[in-house]
Specification:
The complex is a heterotrimer of chains A (646), B (253) and C (231). Chain A contains 18 helices and 21 strands. In chain A, the strands form 6 sheets. A 5-stranded parallel sheet of chain A has the order 5-2-1-9-17. Chain A has a 5-stranded antiparallel sheet with strand order 11-15-14-12-13. In chain A, helix 3 packs parallel to helix 6, helix 4 packs across helix 5 and helix 5 packs across helix 13. The longest helix of chain A has 25 residues. The two termini of chain A are 39 Å apart. Chain B is 36% helix and 14% strand. In chain B, a hairpin with an 8-residue loop joins strand 1 and strand 2. Chain B starts with a strand and ends with a helix. Chain C is mainly α and 231 residues long. The radius of gyration of chain C is 20 Å and the shape is elongated. Chain C starts with a helix and ends with a helix. The chains are: A alpha/beta (646), B alpha+beta (253), C mainly alpha (231). At the A-B interface, helix 3, helix 5, helix 6, helix 12 and helix 13 of A face helix 1, helix 2 and helix 3 of B. The complex binds flavin-adenine dinucleotide, protoporphyrin IX containing FE, iron/sulfur cluster (SF4) and FE2/S2 (inorganic) cluster.
């Protein structure tokens, strides 16, 4: 029997959330004023939570590492946000969104959480509209929708190609209002470096002021982690440079289980890596696949000439082009889900058909749709994206096909939470991409924004009350308590340790090395042998890191290298856990592809018999193996089937 | 993809160890940079060399590196966000520079944005302006259905044009008066175009302008430089709308 | 209200309103001045000058005009100073976005030059006509006068100056061009300031501003040029 209790409420799937709300405790307004909550992160999840909680009367302290809450990486989401509004009359419903999300996640998520997500999704849109988010509109003035990511209905709301930005600015404005009223104390350029627990409960954090270098203590009755995903463990990803796993990682080390780390999403349409100096990858919206055709040359000699730059893509005749997605998946063609499209691109490139100098790119060609629809239509649909592509690559996608390649984009795994979004540490919650809960082994397009806001606006304000109702007698947390002192000392000691190694290698080199191991052996296709090697290599890298790291500058000043060193130290440890989890999960599902578990045609094969569970890992010290706890996934409502896009 | 290598360029950078320290320019050589490299990656390369040489790397703000977070902020060769148009510094590429060129990099020079270190500046002033009124006062929950109020498509589009502001500060940095009008106008104009923003329109315009003045930004003299420097092409027509909103509010007092 | 006067937008509104007022004055001024070159006898101009000097509305307007100038000038200094304070440390690499000569960047300098010119202009004409007098003013007129009407020969004064001094011709030509440049920016900017602008009107107003600026520049400099070339 697992020690994990997900606290899934009783009742039929559609009644669980209302039953739960009816049964959980509520804190009185007078008591809310006495309670403090720390929110780490001001992305969609964090900003919405901080604003909503302080509107309720709680005292909130919010943290982000950027100079403004508005810069959280949610800002970069382009495509849109799903909601079961059924505005299009196309038979969308809460159930259908629920079903699509479970299926899209390849049956590795918790039914109850996902259903709740679908249930609150319409409220998100209403909330955002009320805040003044300028969603796209039809001529009649009503909200417009687009379809997204291989579902049958049109339920994605969007604000041009900047949906994440607009939603975040909405939440940011709500947060600003609370800051102005003095209900939220905002700490920008502060990085959380440890969690403080007292008697097993989360009671505060230690954070470093990134301007002065000062290490400070902050106390609260509950702590919320909304610090985003860990894609940067791969070094190159579509995440921002500062995205990190450190906040989640210190919680893991303090006892919060980490779930399904191996579930990471690889996005098929990113601009390929260019040279060795590249610092980050840029996503090209998935919507491009609606009108672009993906291909590589049929003949090996053409591919070789392309790589050498002897010929260009337009020199290859149509009959010599291999539209491999259309060939392999006739019914979905270029619109197969992200994981399938990504693996297919890798397969072609591994087979030697890659088209750029590095051999790691395929074409996404708009020639055909320009012929069919006219340049004007294409320009109207994708003008911005084409311009962005041209700025980066100096090549004109109207004239030459785009080069694309898969890149790490999103992490489904994260801190384990129960139905209340509470982690295994009482009083510690995880929201948004930082938790593991809703997307199973693969996330549908436009669902992360939905989840972040659902968690922050409509879930945590209810569920946190259930815990805090028991804390109303706890006085303001005294940060002079020994637990705080000890945690602060540990943080300072760690910073000093990193700083004083004074080896010969700057931190980026380690990060790149880690990324290389991860991409090669824990990337799109994984096998037991590679994973075992990866674990060993990562461990070696860790030893080398602590021997040879070079951090310049000063401890007590702005020091980006010191910040990075701390983050990379955590990434190295997380990378190992990720590989371990991947090794444990000997099945292919969603974004996780084990070569040992494939059909004869090389498609992913899930193993429900043995792996229909959440893998939650418990930390046991740096030199010990973590312990695996399994939360069995029970599917009461949905019948499990193998995904097929043939 | 042009793959020309710049064999040697010179980078003249403002170095200042802390807000109060005295700053100075230092010139560094950077060798063998591919023109396909982004500008910030060029600084990464330089920083790597500085670290290996036992020197302090150059501090600069950046995060998303795809032109949307608004964190990056360099003044390059007399241009906020560099000589390219409609891009942020992180989207600038070395293609825009030539062999042997000296590239001067300075922090935003705006009195209200004090330097923190080297090229990093403190843009808290922008936060304060937003906090003064850049919101619609609705609490979570209890709002009407999203389709209750139809919004004329052109209005929604114009609101979106304004809302595209990334809060980078290039407008104030490039403006000869260090005026934050474009930034303020973008928010006021977004809400002025939407029914949701009407209720508090007067209060918002007055509060945000008052805050902007209080924080020591200069006044707008309509030079239009901000619009040209803005990586999101926010139009100065929004400034006119802000003026209108503000005057309307003041006349009603 | 007090914080309106002090607010950045409030201050600017004064510039805008006085600026527009000055433009409308200049429009009349230019029209009248052009009589100088369309009638070499000087009669038209003299009649116009006489009308201006005696008409009660114009008499009321004169101090208001002066006030307009004074407010415009004082405020311009105030605004410019405040704006300079907003950037305590400048850029070593300067501003390469707007060209150094663009009027938008040089309004105070252009205005300052205009102000200097204005003083000269007032000394040369207004003071002589209204206070000190000048022998040229008493030159005989080319036309019969109605009984009881006294009229100066303003034409003689103006033409005399322009005919005899190449230096002043040049000064006045430059003055005219500066006024024109000032207005190519000032005109549309004034509407922008009071909120009368949007994406559609932007183009129209800028176009109009350039047109008016050019008309003013050509109009005002045509006069000394005319005398310079013809005489
Ligand atoms: C390029 C791109 C495009 C995307 N497009 C879409 C899309 O179209 N639709 C969709 O649904 N999803 C999309 N996603 C996914 C989605 O944007 C993210 O999953 C989601 O926004 C995450 O929100 P969050 O609030 O959990 O975290 P984030 O927005 O990443 O916020 C993290 C916050 O935590 C803070 N933080 C992190 N670490 C620390 C620390 N140690 N101390 C203090 N603060 C810390 C940061 O400052 C930040 O405020 C996209 C993602 C990317 C990268
Ligand atoms: C001949 C007469 C003048 C006319 C017709 C005129 C007209 C204008 C107009 C229309 C504006 C634009 C106002 C706005 O942007 O809102 C303006 C601005 C300005 N004027 Fe004048 N002006 C004249 C003389 C002067 C003088 C003598 C000075 C003084 C020193 C001056 C200094 C300025 C300055 C500094 C501005 C810029 C303010 C800004 O750009 O916001 N002007 N002028
Ligand atoms: S208006 Fe433009 S330049 Fe100014 S902060 Fe916004 S995006 Fe940056
Ligand atoms: S780093 Fe985000 S906009 Fe440049």
């Amino acid at each position: 029997m697992s020690i994990l209790n997900s606290h899934i409420p009783e009742g039929s799937i559609s009644e669980k959330w209302s039953n739960h709300k009816a049964n959980i405790k509520v804190v009185s307004p007078a008591n809310k004023m006495k309670l403090e909550i720390i929110v780490v992160g001001t992305g969609l999840a964090g900003a919405s939570a901080a604003a909503s909680l302080s509107e309720l009367g709680y005292n909130v302290k919010a943290f982000c590492y950027q100079d403004s809450p508005r810069r959280a990486h949610s800002i970069a989401a382009q495509g849109g946000i799903n909601a079961a509004k059924n505005y299009q009359n196309d038979n969308d419903s809460v159930y259908r969104l629920f079903y699509d999300t479970i299926k899209g996640g390849d049956y590795r998520s918790r039914e109850a959480n996902v259903h709740r997500l679908a249930e609150v999704s319409p409220n998100i849109i209403d909330q955002c509209v009320a805040q003044g988010v300028p969603f796209a509109r039809e001529y009649g003035g009503l909200l417009s929708n687009r379809s997204f990511g291989g579902v049958l209905v049109s339920r994605t709301f969007y604000a041009r190609g900047q949906t994440g930005q607009q939603l975040l600015l909405g939440a940011y404005s709500a947060l600003n209002r609370q800051i102005a009223e003095g209900n939220v104390k905002m700490y920008t350029r502060h990085e959380m470096l440890d969690l403080v627990t007292i008697d097993g409960k989360a009671r505060g954090i230690i954070a470093r002021d990134m301007v002065t270098g000062e290490v400070k203590r902050f106390g609260a009755h509950a702590v919320i982690i909304a610090s985003g995903g860990y894609s940067n463990v791969f070094f190159l990803s579509t995440n921002a440079m500062g995205c990190n796993c450190s906040a989640s990682w210190v919680c893991y080390k303090k006892g919060a289980f980490f779930a399904n780390p191996c579930f990471v999403q690889i996005h098929p349409t990113c601009i390929p890596v260019h040279g060795s100096q590249q610092s980050k990858l840029t996503l090209m919206s998935e919507s491009l696949r609606n009108d672009g055709r993906v291909w590589t040359p049929k003949k090996m000699e053409d591919a070789e000439k392309l790589r050498k730059g002897i010929i260009g893509p337009n020199d290859i005749k149509d009959e010599d082009r291999d539209f491999y997605l259309e060939r392999r998946y006739p019914s979905y063609g270029n619109l197969v889900p992200r994981d399938v499209a990504s693996r297919a691109a890798k397969e072609r490139c591994d087979a030697g058909y890659g088209v750029n100098k590095e051999g790691k790119a395929v074409y996404l060609d708009f020639k055909y749709s320009i012929e069919r629809l006219g340049k004007h239509t294409i320009e109207k649909r994708y003008g911005n994206l084409f311009q962005m592509y041209e700025k980066i690559t100096d090549s004109d996608p109207y004239k030459e096909p785009m080069q694309i390649y898969p890149a790490i984009h999103y992490t489904m795994g994260g801190t384990w939470v129960d139905y209340n979004l509470m982690t295994t540490i009482p009083g510690l919650y995880a929201l948004g991409e930082a938790n593991f809960s809703d997307h199973g082994a693969n996330r549908l397009g436009a669902s992360a924004l939905m989840q972040g806001l659902a968690d922050g606006y409509f879930v945590i304000p209810y569920t946190i009350g259930d815990y805090l109702a028991g804390e109303i007698r706890v006085p303001k947390i005294d940060t002079n308590r020994p637990e705080f002192v000890e945690a602060e000392n540990a943080v300072v000691a760690r910073l000093e340790k990193l700083f004083h190694i004074k080896g010969k290698t700057p931190v980026d080199h380690f990060h790149k090395k880690l990324g290389q191991i991860m991409w090669d052996k824990v990337g799109m296709a994984r096998n037991a042998e590679g994973l075992t090697e990866a674990i060993k290599e990562i461990q070696e890298l860790r030893v080398e890191f602590y021997k040879d790291l070079l951090v310049p500058g000063e401890l007590k000043n702005v020091n980006p290298e010191l910040e990075k060193a701390g983050r990379v130290a955590d990434f190295i440890e997380l990378g190992e856990l990720l590989a371990r989890d991947a090794l444990n999960r000997n099945e292919s599902c969603g974004g996780h592809f084990r070569e040992e578990s494939a059909t004869d045609e090389g498609e992913a094969k899930r193993d429900d018999e043995n792996f229909a569970y959440v893998a939650a890992w418990e930390y046991k010290g740096i030199d010990n193996e973590p312990v695996l706890h399994k939360e069995d996934l029970v599917f009461e409502t949905i019948h499990l089937t193998q995904r097929s896009y043939k | 993809m042009a793959d020309i290598i710049l064999k040697k360029i010179y980078v003249k950078v403002w170095r200042q160890n802390s807000p109060k320290a005295k700053g100075r320019f230092e010139t560094y050589e950077v060798i063998n940079v591919s023109q396909g490299t982004s500008f910030l990656e060029m600084i990464d390369i330089l920083n790597d060399e500085l670290i290996l040489a036992g020197k302090d790397p150059i501090a600069f703000d950046h995060d998303c590196r795809e032109g949307i977070c608004g964190m990056c902020s360099l003044y390059v060769n007399g241009h906020a966000h560099g000589p390219d148009t409609v891009v942020t510094t992180c989207q600038l590429h070395m293609r825009r520079f030539t062999e042997g060129q000296t590239i001067t990099i300075e922090p935003w020079r705006v009195g209200a944005f004090p330097v923190i270190k080297d090229l990093m500046v403190d843009r808290t002033a922008f936060e304060k302006i937003q906090q003064a009124g850049g919101f619609v006062s609705v609490n979570t929950g209890g709002v009407p259905d999203g389709n209750v109020i139809p919004i004329f498509q052109d209005d929604a589009e114009e609101a979106m044009d304004a809302a595209a502001c990334i809060g980078c500060g290039a407008c104030a940095a490039t403006c000869k008066n260090s005026s934050a009008m474009l930034f303020v106008a973008a928010k006021v104009s977004q809400f002025a175009k939407l029914p949701q923003g009407q209720v508090e329109a007067k209060k918002r315009a007055k509060a945000m302008v008052a805050k902007m003045d209080e924080l020591g930004f200069g006044g707008c003299t309509n030079t239009g430089a901000c619009e040209l420097a803005c990586p999101k092409s926010i139009s100065i027509a929004h400034i006119s709308r802000l003026n209108r909103e503000y005057l309307k509010a003041k006349l009603a007092d | 209200m007090s914080n309106f006067l002090n607010a950045s937008i409030g201050r600017k509104v004064f510039m805008s309103l006085t600026g527009l007022f000055l433009i409308s004055f200049l429009l009349i001024h230019l029209t009248l001045n052009l009589f100088l070159i369309f009638d070499d006898s000087g009669n038209l101009f003299n009649q116009a000058a006489h009308f201006m000097a005696t008409n009660p509305i114009i008499k009321i307007m004169e101090p208001i005009l002066a006030l307009g100038f004074i407010i415009h000038i004082i405020w311009s200094g105030w605004i410019t100073l405040e704006n300079m304070k907003a950037r305590p440390i400048g850029y070593a690499s300067g501003d390469q976005l707007l060209k150094w000569w663009e009027p938008a960047k040089n309004m105070f300098i252009l205005g300052g030059m205009i102000a200097i010119f204005l003083v000269l202009h007032i000394l040369q004409f207004w003071v002589k006509m209204k206070i000190t007098g000048d022998p040229l003013l008493n030159e005989p007129l080319n036309m019969p006068l109605e009984a009881g009407v006294e009229m100066h020969n303003a034409y003689a004064l103006v033409a005399g100056l322009f005919k005899n001094s190449v230096l002043y011709d040049i000064v006045y030509i430059i003055g005219g061009i500066f006024v024109g440049l000032h207005i190519t920016h000032g005109f549309w900017s004034a509407f922008q300031t009071i909120g009368f602008n949007n994406n559609n009107w932007m183009k129209r107003l800028k176009c109009l501003a350039n047109l008016i600026g050019i008309v003013f520049a050509i109009g005002f400099s045509a006069i000394p040029l005319y005398f310079l070339i013809k005489f």
